[in-house]
Amino acid sequence: MVVLMEYKDVLAYYLEERGITAAELSRRIGSPRSTVNELLKGRAKEPTLGKAKAIADALDVTLQEMADMMYADERSES
Question: Which of 8, 25, 56, 77 has the least C-beta neighbours within 10 A?
Answer without folding.
Answer: 77
